[in-house]
Write a structure and sequence with these properties.
Layout (H helix, E strand, L loop, with lengths): L24 E6 L4 E6 L5 E2 L5 E9 L2 E7 L8 E2 L2 E3 L6 H13 L1 E12 L6 E12 L7 E7 L12 H13 L7
Parallel strand pairs: 4-9
Antiparallel strand pairs: 1-2, 2-3, 4-5, 4-7, 5-6, 5-10, 8-9
């Protein structure tokens, strides 16, 4: 028997019960813009399903940037920069620093916001520039390889996400480097 939860994910059409009272959620047009939302039939709570936030860094040291090879899906076996979901009550900057440490063992200082990347049906990705302060380079459960790369060594065909590609192009472009790939 297959796993009945294998292909489930949180989406407007998969949310069925109110997180406050357990009542059945129905779809209704909600003022002021009359966009259809999930509304509880019992307590009238409106369950707005908003995109998640991801915060990441492009750590730089000695003219090289650090990339991680993912050992989990999505993007298993592909390369990206350190990053992950922002926890409730956490700033995006704090999340970027925390995720970088969790995924690489490195402590970083954020040196500026690179950009915000947004795609329909995906998390919003906030990417910071970062300088390494210290720590010991260490993989984690989410990656199986960490590698410092020069711009010429970036594996463009093996990058995990559109945001990875766009952020690296922008990062290198700021430095006057014409990115490959």
């Amino acid at each position: 028997m297959g796993d009945e939860h294998a292909h489930r994910f949180l989406a407007p059409e998969t949310v069925r019960f109110c997180p406050l009272c357990g009542g059945v959620l129905g779809r209704e047009a909600v003022p002021p813009d009359q966009r259809e939302q999930a509304v509880c039939s019992r307590c009238r709570f409106i369950f707005y399903l908003n995109p998640k936030l991801v915060a990441g860094t492009i750590p730089e040291q000695d003219g090289r940037i650090l990339l991680t090879r993912r050992s989990i899906n999505p993007g298993r076996g592909l390369w990206t920069f350190p990053g992950g979901f922002v926890d409730f009550g956490e700033t995006t900057a704090d999340a970027a620093i925390r995720e970088t440490f969790e995924e690489t063992g490195l402590k970083v200082d954020l040196t500026g916001l690179l950009n915000v990347y947004s795609y329909g049906g995906a998390p919003v990705i906030i990417v910071y520039r970062a300088q390494v302060l210290g720590g010991e380079l260490t993989t984690c459960a989410e990656n199986d390889l960490l590698q410092w790369m020069t711009p010429d060594e970036i594996p463009w065909p093996s990058l995990a996400f559109p945001s990875t590609r766009e952020a690296l192009r922008e990062y290198l472009g700021e430095r006057g480097i014409v990115p490959g790939g």
